[in-house]
Amino acid sequence: MSNNDDKQTFRPLDELSYEQARDELVEVVKILELGQMSLDESLRFWERGEELAAYCERYLDGAAQRVETALQNRGDQSTGEPGDAAE
């Protein structure tokens, strides 16, 4: 986050790792909890927090899918049969 002309600007989400986005979200929440900003500033931070939360959720969903796929592949290899034996 950087300050230009007293207006808060934020790094694009695609430049952030999951950890950076999570840490920024924590900071946004702390800033909002202080409640010492104008309504416009508060709205900008709230919108950024929503963006960061959605980004983190998508990232975690993707990670969960990768784990599930890896477990599925491991199960397929151990049985020697394609597909899930439970289906």
From TrEMBL:
<dbReference type="GO" id="GO:0009318">
    <property type="term" value="C:exodeoxyribonuclease VII complex"/>
</dbReference>
<dbReference type="Pfam" id="PF02609">
    <property type="entry name" value="Exonuc_VII_S"/>
</dbReference>
<dbReference type="InterPro" id="IPR003761">
    <property type="entry name" value="Exonuc_VII_S"/>
</dbReference>
<keyword id="KW-0269">Exonuclease</keyword>
<keyword id="KW-0378">Hydrolase</keyword>
<comment type="subunit">
    <text>Heterooligomer composed of large and small subunits.</text>
</comment>
<keyword id="KW-0540">Nuclease</keyword>
<keyword id="KW-0963">Cytoplasm</keyword>
<dbReference type="GO" id="GO:0006308">
    <property type="term" value="P:DNA catabolic process"/>
</dbReference>
<comment type="function">
    <text>Bidirectionally degrades single-stranded DNA into large acid-insoluble oligonucleotides, which are then degraded further into small acid-soluble oligonucleotides.</text>
</comment>
<dbReference type="InterPro" id="IPR037004">
    <property type="entry name" value="Exonuc_VII_ssu_sf"/>
</dbReference>
<dbReference type="GO" id="GO:0005829">
    <property type="term" value="C:cytosol"/>
</dbReference>
<comment type="similarity">
    <text>Belongs to the XseB family.</text>
</comment>
<dbReference type="GO" id="GO:0008855">
    <property type="term" value="F:exodeoxyribonuclease VII activity"/>
</dbReference>
<protein>
    <recommendedName>
        <fullName>Exodeoxyribonuclease 7 small subunit</fullName>
        <ecNumber>3.1.11.6</ecNumber>
    </recommendedName>
</protein>
